[in-house]
Amino acid sequence: MKNKHKTILWILFILVAFGQLFPLIWLFNYSLLSSSDFFSSSILKWPSQPEWQNYVNAWVDGKFPKYLFNSVLVSTVTILLTVFLSLSLAYAFTRMQWKMRSFFFTVILLGIMIPIHATLLPNFAIFKAIGLTNSYLGLIIPYTAVSVPLGTFILSGFLRSIPSAIEESAVMDGCSIYRIVFQIIMPLTMPALVTIAVTTFLTCWNEFIMAATFLSKDSLKTLPFSVMNFAGQYSSDYGSQFAVMVLTSIPAIIIYALFNEQITKGVTAGAVKG
């Protein structure tokens, strides 16, 4: 009976895994089709002659290296700012005693409920007035602002689980507040920091609507714009578009696979200990 239940369980796991992987399989399959092969009733259609040229088009005509650099730059700066601000705010809310601390903590956490695109029009009006459109800061600032509330929430749960005696000993040894936060507390909260870094990366890596609104200079555009380079008024190069999406998804898949264990620890420990 145990073997039967184990077999059923493995079958369920395999079905769930296939359901999770199917979008990637479908994406890769369609990236190898020619434009004439797209108009069919088949969900998957392996071509007799794969169109690897789609990937060459995606790399060259899609300006993939240039847009990749811009995406990496924006994502890296956003992650660094988010980690720094989240750690600083979480420490201030959990360790320091000051008036209206609970009120401001609630205000920060309200940001979790605000979708990034709900701030699109106000941000555009403000950034246009102060000259931040067509700049990296025009993306970095809103991406950071939408990521900090969740990062503060996760880190607050971690910091409450860390004994304050560690910091008291550091103060007795003459450590400044900056050394305590960034040399003592920061290493202890590494699982949470990795979780925040990966979720922030995924938030800004594939974001397109805000980038399309704030950026018009080709030299500043991010990876999602590569797909639009193959979209025409009357026809589109679908194979190259799917190739761009495959190339764009590879960094996200690699990063999530590498830090999957840390992400799980960060989410569960922050939820339980907080």
Automatic annotation (TrEMBL):
<dbReference type="InterPro" id="IPR035906">
    <property type="entry name" value="MetI-like_sf"/>
</dbReference>
<keyword id="KW-1003">Cell membrane</keyword>
<keyword id="KW-0812">Transmembrane</keyword>
<keyword id="KW-1133">Transmembrane helix</keyword>
<keyword id="KW-0813">Transport</keyword>
<dbReference type="Pfam" id="PF00528">
    <property type="entry name" value="BPD_transp_1"/>
</dbReference>
<feature type="domain" description="ABC transmembrane type-1">
    <location>
        <begin position="68"/>
        <end position="259"/>
    </location>
</feature>
<feature type="transmembrane region" description="Helical">
    <location>
        <begin position="7"/>
        <end position="28"/>
    </location>
</feature>
<feature type="transmembrane region" description="Helical">
    <location>
        <begin position="136"/>
        <end position="159"/>
    </location>
</feature>
<feature type="transmembrane region" description="Helical">
    <location>
        <begin position="67"/>
        <end position="91"/>
    </location>
</feature>
<feature type="transmembrane region" description="Helical">
    <location>
        <begin position="180"/>
        <end position="202"/>
    </location>
</feature>
<comment type="similarity">
    <text>Belongs to the binding-protein-dependent transport system permease family.</text>
</comment>
<keyword id="KW-0472">Membrane</keyword>
<dbReference type="InterPro" id="IPR000515">
    <property type="entry name" value="MetI-like"/>
</dbReference>
<feature type="transmembrane region" description="Helical">
    <location>
        <begin position="238"/>
        <end position="259"/>
    </location>
</feature>
<protein>
    <submittedName>
        <fullName>Carbohydrate ABC transporter permease</fullName>
    </submittedName>
</protein>
<feature type="transmembrane region" description="Helical">
    <location>
        <begin position="103"/>
        <end position="130"/>
    </location>
</feature>
